[in-house]
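Annex B. Sample input.
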Amino acid sequence: MGRPKRHLLTTAEETSTPPTALDPGHAIARVTKAEGKNLYSVELPSGKEPLLVELPSRFRSQIWIKRGGYVVVDLSAFGDRENKLGGEIINVVRDEKQWRKQGYWPSEFVKKPTYLDDSEDDESTVGKMPPTEDSEADE
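Annex B, continued. Sample output.
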């Protein structure tokens, strides 16, 4: 039998609002890859090598994390153990717009524009017919 709905609502409510400040040892990270078995590769703002983090059981099958999303990672969670894990996910950023307004949001994680610049339209072949054999012979 699955968990009661109250657990889902409690978990969703905990992650809906950003905290006023991050605790020492916590960092915001971008998810780069789902490794499987509730493990994710994340990229820290420092841009070093990817870090392997674990999703705790309270989030499993309740909140889904997509590639490119942001999470709060506790880097000191697995510091005393000898394994590949570099931390544990303690919060999932759901309302990115609200989180970006906080003072602790890393400046390295800038919002990428959805649309391309107009300057790249000259090189684009979208909507154009393929070249014919006559035009290839002229060149």
